Amino acid sequence: MLRDTTRPGRGCPGILLLLRTDDGWAEGRAHKMNEHALWRRLAAEFLGSAFLAAVVIGSGIAAQRLSPGNIGLELFENAAATGAGLFAIILMFGPVSGAHLNPVISFVDAGFGGLRWRDALAYLPAQVAGCVSGAIVANLMFSLAAVGISTKHRASGAHFLSEVVATLGLVLVIFALARTGRSRLAPAAVGAYIGAAYFFTSSTSFANPAIAVGRMFSDTFAGIAPSSAPSFIGAQIVGGIVAFGVIKTLYPRVTPAEAADVVFPHHDLEDDSVAPVAVNDGAHSVTRHSTYLPSPPK
What we know:
- The protein is mostly helical.
- The chain has helices spanning 38-66, 71-97, 103-111, 117-141, 157-179, 186-200, 209-214, 229-250, 256-259, and strands spanning 2-4, 15-21, 24-29, 33-34, 268-269, 275-280, 285-290.
- The chain has a three-stranded antiparallel β-sheet with strand order 1-2-3, with no helix packed on it. A two-stranded antiparallel sheet has the order 4-5. Strands 6-7 form a two-stranded antiparallel ribbon.
- The radius of gyration is 21 Å and the shape is globular.
């Protein structure tokens, strides 16, 4: 039997084990879980965000050139490349930082105690800078000016609602997987959701304030005019807040240990996955081997 002993905001938890002995239950503490150094996680968030922006913007440019005038096919090519790219990017950088690549995910995670608030604040500039850098690289890869401020206006009531819905769904997918111990499915689930949301939302599912900022710097298929970006970012923040409340309703016992594995598991035990735990209930001294297991849904 496992009892969570984490404290909100503390990052990596210890696990308190209640072990059955002949005369009752005894307690023992398993090895704590390691967290990668902050600079490594920031580097992963910067690089992951840069790759994400490069995939989104670069595939949009390629789609326009490969299928000129066919908007539906262009969008399909852009969505397919983005979904597949997200799958690979989360696998690349998830083991280091969790591959949030999105300030909304980081701050919702902090709200559930899976990430320190100061770390979430540090992730923000890394994610934004990464997306801007990725946009510049995408422009250069297609022989465009390094920076081209987008003139594509997207702000409307329908776009605002679309971004609220897109962000809400993205956060729900990620935290539902974390709550039920299935975070290793996140690369496929997130990629599939975003690919689908390109088509079921009128905004083509940005769902990420950092990518909204980055896409301002490319006057191409995937760009967004600076005058439209505040509306998108505001909608994404609203979507994140709504998602936090919905998760609290659907999964009222989300623990910091579960939130710590958002988006992808990135914490390791100090020792091997199986560690001996010495316990003493006052009458008997026993040693058991334990492994970290996710809590079942409640």
